[in-house]
């Protein structure tokens, strides 16, 4: 309104000056000047309104975050039917710290990746290891929030003691994971075949039931399941690979803001002790 008033006052002053000179052409020119000033002011007000609307839209955005369904202790359903886990709590703490709104959708590993790639989800947190191969294929990662490696487990009474005992046998992995890549890298050398499953619990049951001789999975995931459920499995020593960090991921560079907020929030919850409390809650570390 200040801009509009000023423009009109200037136009009126110009018109008065011209009329004072006794020129009808000048009066006509003054009217045109006034109209132009009004149009310019209206355009400015329209631009300002659009900018305000854009700001309000950004502030009110709800981010869609995809995750796995059963990856205990990082994401799983507890005895009360609530979806909980390290990833769930870390995301909640970061969102609170950074002041953004989100909806967590439990889709499963493969479906989470597909949803992000299709633009149906903005980001993914599901114990995803940060690797160069994934970065090259379009994953955009946050800073790492947990170090984990992969190892091999067998049925508790199995005589299998290491990779050398797997020749001619089949091992289980979860599709599209680091543990699958790890098993695949060893299969040729040790002569075993790889069988693929969609989730860890089904894979573990295949080991216990004797459908496969062993399975490869993230070490903390297997350790948590063995401890909490009493499933008849054991993790074999000296079968782990080098640790890799888990990271939050996006698949569209337009969502970089979300990664930036995750990184800033992660640094803050590590500094104020919230992160350590979350890890201790689920792993006792």
How are the elements arranged and paired?
Blueprint: H1 2-20, H2 24-59, E1 62-67, E2 76-77, E3 83-84, H3 86-98, E4 101-106, H4 109-117, E5 123-124, H5 132-136, E6 140-148, E7 150-155, E8 170-174, H6 178-190, E9 193-197, H7 200-208, E10 214-218, H8 219-229, E11 233-235, E12 244-250, H9 256-271, H10 274-283
Parallel strand pairs: 1-4, 1-5, 8-9, 8-10
Antiparallel strand pairs: 2-3, 6-12, 7-10, 7-11
| Low-confidence region ranges | 1-30, 49-58
Order of strands across the biggest sheet?
A: 9-8-10-7-11
Annotation, overall tally of beta strands? 12
**For the residues shown, what is the average pLDDT?**
85
The class by helix and strand makeup works out as alpha/beta
Radius of gyration: 30 Å
- Specify the number of helices: 10
Total individual domains: 3
Walk me through this protein's architecture.
By secondary structure, the chain is α/β, with parallel strands linked by helices. The chain folds into three domains: 2-58; 62-148 and 244-283, 3-Layer(aba) Sandwich (D-Maltodextrin-Binding Protein, domain 2), CATH 3.40.190.10; 150-235, Periplasmic binding protein-like II (D-Maltodextrin-Binding Protein, domain 2), CATH 3.40.190.10. Helix content is 49%, strand content 20%. It contains ten helices and twelve strands. It has helices at 2-20, 24-59, 86-98, 109-117, 132-136, 178-190, 200-208, 219-229, 256-271, 274-283; strands at 62-67, 76-77, 83-84, 101-106, 123-124, 140-148, 150-155, 170-174, 193-197, 214-218, 233-235, 244-250. The strands form four sheets. It has a five-stranded mixed β-sheet, with helices on both faces. α3 (86-98) packs antiparallel against α10. The longest helix is centred in the first third of the chain and has 36 residues, at 24-59. It is globular. It starts with a helix and ends with a helix.
